[in-house]
Amino acid sequence: MRKLAIMLGFCLLGSTLTSCALPNAISNFVDSIEHETGGSKKIEYTDEAKKSGFLLEQPTTGAGIGKDEFLIQGSIAETKAGDQLLVRISKEGQVGEKVISIKDKKFRQPVPLFYGKGKHEVEILIPDPSKKNYYFSAARFTVENTSSIQQVPMRYNPSFYKEYGVTLEQPIAGGKIYDGKVLLQGSVEPPSKDTKPVKYLVVRADKGEDKSNYYIPVKDQKFSQWIPLRFGAGDYKVQLTVGDLHYSPVVSFEVKNSVTADLRDLLPGSGMESDNPEIISLSKQITANASSPMEKARAIYKHVATNVSYDLKKKDNYWDDGAIKTLREGKGICHDYALTTIALLRASEIPARYIGGNAGEPHAWVEAKIGDKWITMDPTWGSGYSVGKKFVKAYDPSYFNPNPASFNKTHKKSEVIY
């Protein structure tokens, strides 16, 4: 019997990794497939599927029905750590792919029906155990989609996706419309014990030239976090990256935001946990006696400047920095002062943004919008000063809404960071 295998190839288009269309020959099944019998259509398996011990538990029929998606579940006996299935979904000349992780010889994951209402042809490919990045056709069937919603295939970086054992469970496809935020949920289970454990993922959610970064903690090899779509209605590109591999996304996809309002300066961000109950409660406490947004902002500035001490031993920013961490530890560097101030301001419904720049060395401070005017504050410089290796607490109110001309002599703004 002639074996039919194909190498899985990937293209690099600019900085975006895109899965290449596989040759049509991959769909030529060997002679031993099971055909329709007795009026009931069966799932078609190849000889290679049978040799590998590949078996589907879901779906149970070769002609199924789904709405937007369908479940693939089963097992494969001949497999090794890190192996993945490749699922090809096609309709009327359109072809998309979905990667499914195999864990302990089992797999279970929903698969999108990308192309709206109608019959989708589905083909499952299994890895060739003898060759790297080679796949065999294993099974095929059809699924009738009852939904007219159009979805877009995700783009995978196969090396990183496999090396780190990433499984993105939600969302399962791109192109969907969201109401201001999107849930990213899944697991990170590196197949090799030599792979360094992953503590966090980095997410970019960009709309055109507007860019934002978020950090997602990985706990017990799982992650789950809502990512704000903060720049108003429109198309966003979302990229999921392992740790510090910022320029090599593991997976990327597009989504649409239906919320018209541009909430970039009000929504929570990484380290700016303005939606955290602890931050909301403290913000209300700090501003209880303030009668105007300007007074609220001044009270928040004073609280951060007087309750946080500069940490002369800390040299770098870390992925888990944030307002909660800074307030609990009572110390930080300019980065931490800024994150904490912004979180408290946003919790008080005062638009605020993180400013990166230079003040003799790399520095961060805050801008807040009061009415229709943006004002500046630097809670780090308002907190005190250093003498040698010692930080001296000395509250200075002059760095709240300072004279712009004087402030700009010492502070050079270079960017707004979201």
Explain what this protein looks like in three dimensions.
- This protein has 7 helices and 29 strands.
- The strands form 8 sheets. Strands 1, 4, 6, 8, 9, 11 and 12 form a 7-stranded mixed β-sheet that branches.
- Helices cover 15% and strands 40% of the residues.
- The protein is an alpha+beta fold.
- Residues 1-39 have low confidence and may be disordered.
- A hairpin with a 2-residue loop joins strand 27 (384-387) and strand 28 (390-393).
- 40% of the residues are buried.
- Helix 4 runs antiparallel to helix 6 (334-347) and helix 5 (323-329) crosses helix 6 (334-347).
- The chain has 3 domains: 1-152, Sandwich (Immunoglobulin-like); 154-263, Sandwich (Immunoglobulin-like), CATH 2.60.40.10; 277-417, C8orf32 fold (Roll), CATH 3.10.620.
